Amino acid sequence: MTDLNAELRTFYKARQQQIPAGTREIMQRAVRELAASGQVDRALTCGADAPRFQLPSATGESVALEDLLVHGPVVLTFYRGAWCPYCNLALRALQQHHTDITARGARLVAVSPQIPDESLTLTEKHGLAFDVLSDIGSDTAKQYGLAFDLPDDLAAVYDELGFDLQRVNDGHPRTLPLPATYVISRDGTIRWAFVDADYTTRAEPADILAAVDALDEPR
Asked: What CATH code is carried by the domain that includes residue 207?
């Protein structure tokens, strides 16, 4: 199975050839500025208590971290939305490893700022077997130190591309989460963390599985 980030880089290179030079510069500059902002350093990392949340799933059910942890560790991944092709590739890779995650007694959940209807469409399109939760307003992402606001020029680019974040994020078009994945032990402690300012880079499923194995918790 191809490494996720190798697949993402291949997609990125092909994508760049389709995007006008001015638009590419805006996107690349936004990534550089976000990396330089120190946002990644402010995000929660290993050893921190995982903020509790209760969010609606794509099917309208309320999912609470506290309830998930009763049954075992949790793999929590934050993504930007169904409009982001890099997010879709990452979620598809997680789905390919979903059986491996659950076999280890862990529960996988994904969180984005988009509305449940968008999450449901995404779930059905990619055949996702794990919960996809809606963090409208990015309140949960803020608690994890992941939320940031798009710069004006990049927000304008996304509007031109037709992403319609005003609608899919229910009136919160400028706030997105950093790409992040956490492995949370049953006591609610973050035991492994991946956070990156570059939305074209994601946690490798193999690394996630290794982190769950390292928990050495009863299954």
From this structure: 3.40.30.10
For the chain, how many structural domains are there in total? 1
* Residue 43 · residue 197 · CB < 8 Å: no
Between CA 124 and CA 144 the distance in angstroms is 28
Q: 171-184: string of b/e by CB count within 10 Å (b at 16+)?
A: ebbbbbbbbbbbbb
Q: Is 11 exposed, middle or buried (0-12, 13-18, 19+ CB in 10 A)?
A: middle
- What pTM, to 2 d.p., does this model score? 0.95
The whole-angstrom separation of Cα 16 and Cα 1 is: 25
Evaluate whether 89 touches 11 at the Cβ level (below 8 Å): yes
pLDDT digit string (tens) for 52-80? 999 999 988 999 999 999 999 999 999 99
Which residue segment(s) compose the domain that 36 sits in?
4-215
Cβ neighbours of residue 100 closer than 8 Å, sequence gap 6 or more: 205, 209
